[in-house]
Write a structure and sequence with these properties.
Number of strands: 9
Order of helices and strands: HEEHHEHEEEEHEE
Largest sheet: 5 strands, parallel
Radius of gyration: 15 Å
Helix content: 25-40%
Distance between the termini: 12 Å
């Protein structure tokens, strides 16, 4: 993971003053780093019977797609409102200043599915908690949660159910 950490760019005061943003675009553009992430993610879930990987817009699409490909699962995008063309279900959730909404296609997950929800960074956990509730409402057999980076000082895991199986490749 030292190689991956060496490729993460810190952006000071983004998206607002006082925030140090962990930018993974510098990781994703590096072929070796992207390969390492794909390999490490797939090793976490290769033998768990995963049938669907849900990637959260937008950077969660990158690692989520790679993970789905590597383990032979389907990929489901969790998107902002109005971006999905068919019948959707949605969840509104609180953010630092206001609320937001996330959607998935109503037919994306079935009770036979074993799901990994993937996003690039766990910060406060609000978006992941909303997607978790959406997926849970469709009653899959099992739900796993995964991040490339976890900002542990922000206690994002507390936003998730206590019994959620959460893994992160890198923790700060």
């Amino acid at each position: 993971m030292d190689y991956i950490k060496s490729k993460i760019r810190d952006v000071v005061d983004f998206p607002s003053k006082g925030i140090v943003f962990k930018d993974l675009t510098t990781v994703f553009k590096d072929p070796r780093a992207l390969h390492i992430i794909g390999w490490d993610l797939s090793q976490l879930y290769r033998d768990k019977g995963i049938t669907k990987v849900v990637g959260i817009e937008s950077r969660g699409f990158i690692g989520g797609s790679i993970l789905a490909y590597e383990i032979g699962a389907g990929f489901v995008p969790a998107r902002k409102p109005g971006k999905l063309p068919a019948d959707t279900i949605r969840m509104e959730y609180a953010k630092e200043y206001g609320t937001d909404v996330i959607e998935i296609h109503r037919d994306a997950i079935t009770p036979d599915d074993i799901v990994v929800i993937h996003d690039d960074v766990l910060a406060t956990g609000g978006t992941m908690a909303a997607v978790y509730k959406l997926i849970e409402s469709l009653h899959p057999k099992k739900i796993y949660v995964n991040f490339i980076i976890e900002l542990s000082a922000l206690n994002g895991r507390k936003a998730l159910p206590a019994d959620a199986e959460v893994t992160s490749l890198i923790s700060y």
